[in-house]
Design a protein that fits this description.
With about 250 residues, this protein is α/β, with parallel strands linked by helices. The chain has a domain of about 140 residues: Rossmann fold (3-Layer(aba) Sandwich). It has nine helices and ten strands. The strands form two sheets. The protein has a six-stranded mixed β-sheet, with helices on both faces. A hairpin with a 4-residue loop joins β1 and β2. α3 runs parallel beside α5. The mean pLDDT is about 95.
Length: about 250
Amino acid sequence: MSEYILKIKNLTKVYRDRKQEKLAVNDISLSVRRGSFFGLLGPNGAGKSTTIHCITGIAQPTSGTITIDGVDVVKDYKLARTKVGLSPQEFNVNIFNTTEQLMDYMGGYYGIKKAARKAKIDQLVERFDLTEHRQVVFQRLSGGLKRRAILGRALIHTPDLLILDEPTAGVDVEQRHDLWGYLRELNEMGKTIILTSHYLEEIQALCDDIAIINRGQIVAHGTKAEFMKDGKSVEEAYLEITRAANNNSAV
């Protein structure tokens, strides 16, 4: 078994329309250790979402390779997709489905048998304190409960890799810390988690490895300890690195 659950090699993604081309990700290479809690940082438009979309099959790489647990996400899309769960920033759900239905439909998509699906839903509903809300339609849930429901949906097929894109956006402070607790438990149980967040205190609290993408390129990658050397916070290191990268690109 490889030390790295995710390997990205020379990934480039160009979006094209009739009028122009946009280089969203430019020849990036990155590896994520199995069992790690990995923070992927960058400004808006830096290439984070594009990278995630290429990993999860929402977008297809223009060039380069991505493997999840040794499975190529392009050549063996169906198998690769079973190995990753995505909790997206935007709520891409039918808002009139209940919490239970969201998980049930996703379980059905992955071919999980009805009895096994129900047992998994029961487990996730209990784990994320959704028992009282399992029959409530998504539209009526609070922000924090919506995030929990989406997280449960992402975990229904027991993926090896969990990707969380701004999982606490719009969530109040108390609910954010509750979600942190759930995520720590998942990671301690061996789940590899990739987290993107503009709340850099969240990255500092949860992640052990960090990479920064800026203007489609990886400009820094290392352990949290390396980012926080000399008494810096992750936020201070992030600002220093991105400002330097922007200044260099402007020269």
